[in-house]
What we know:
α2 packs antiparallel against α8 (about 215-230). β4 (about 105-110), α5 (about 115-130) and β5 (about 135-140) form a beta-alpha-beta unit. The protein has helices at about 10-30, 40-50, 60-80, 95-100, 115-130, 170-185, 200-205, 215-230, 290-295; strands at about 5-10, 30-35, 85, 105-110, 135-140, 155-160, 190-195, 240-245, 250-255, 260-265, 270, 275-285, 300-305, 315-320. The protein has a single domain, classed as Vaccinia Virus protein VP39 (Rossmann fold). It contains nine helices and 14 strands. About 35% of the residues lie in helices and about 25% in strands. By secondary structure, the chain is an alpha/beta fold. The strands form three sheets. Strands 1-5-4-3-6-7-14-13 form an eight-stranded mixed beta sheet, sandwiched between helices. The site of S-adenosylmethionine (SAM) has 20 residues, from α2 and β4. S-adenosylmethionine binds near residues 48, 111, 141 and 161.
Amino acid sequence: MTGSALLPRSSGDVARREFARDVLAGLAGQCKAIPSKYLYDEHGSALFERICETPEYYVTRVETGILRDCAPEVAASAGPSCSVIEFGSGAATKTEILLDALATPSAYVCVDVCVEQLAASRARLAKRFPALPITAIAADYMRLEESSLPVFPGGRLGFFPGSTIGNLTPDEVQRFLATTRRVLGHGGMLLIGVDTVKDEAVLNAAYNDAAGVTAAFTINLLRRMNRELDGSFDPDRFRHVAFYNAELQRIEIFVESLIDQVVRVAGRAFTLRAGERIRTEYSYKYRPEQFVATAATVGYAAVGSWMDADELFCVHLLAGV
Ligand SMILES: C[S@@+](CC[C@H](N)C(=O)[O-])C[C@H]1O[C@@H](n2cnc3c(N)ncnc32)[C@H](O)[C@@H]1O
């Protein structure tokens, strides 16, 4: 395959029905929650890019520095001509570091739920790497099958930066890693960025930036439900709440109702009490050895692990054993 292609995996109607189904199920429970992937509509993705630039959100800056340092070693382990499959690619800015280091990558495949972001990243990378076959797949990375991916010469190197693994619960992490083992095939490797356990003040600041960009990102989910699911959420009647739960090693993020109210969405009404929360996101943190042990349970061994001097972030290169 040459050139670049954008492959939608489901029509807009199917995607909207799934969104409605997930929201109704998530609001019906005792502990209300909406899957974090719905934070990333076009505006949510743009807000996430702005989060990456806030002084408090160290993740992007630190991971980029680590990738610059370790990319030659990664390229030596993966081989210069593998194809790169990126899960949750977003703006795909770190991708360029990896593709530059690989010298002659056979192809780049990006997978993301945000179609607009995928199209923009694909267009930018096609300009930057004109000879590289690029395929963008609009899909949920939890549901990929081996047949979802185009076949290119050489082995497959999975890429999952940005601490996106932190959004998954421990069960989902097992499922995601097992899925990547399957879709990356024999000899496949996975380069993954994992946020570390650290000083709570640093973590709490990262998800409560002073400029309020993370709060806007959380509240944008209400606007998305209003637009796409005929919702009646008044964003001024909610606030963003984010804090570190040390026992469970995770940041928990919610929209919190400021008053007793009834909201309508996707044809149903829900009562919210003042102070009641809807969870929108987790961000789990791992000690490097904890993550390596988790990966081992699905048959991955760490070929290399790299951290910054302050141990704020860790990048692991995993290989199937
Ligand atoms: C934390 S951002 C990371 C973006 C980018 N990889 C980075 O390192 O900055 C998570 C990205 O994963 C995408 N995403 C979230 N859940 C997803 C899912 N279930 N399937 C596919 N993409 C998903 C979002 O649209 C977003 O682009």
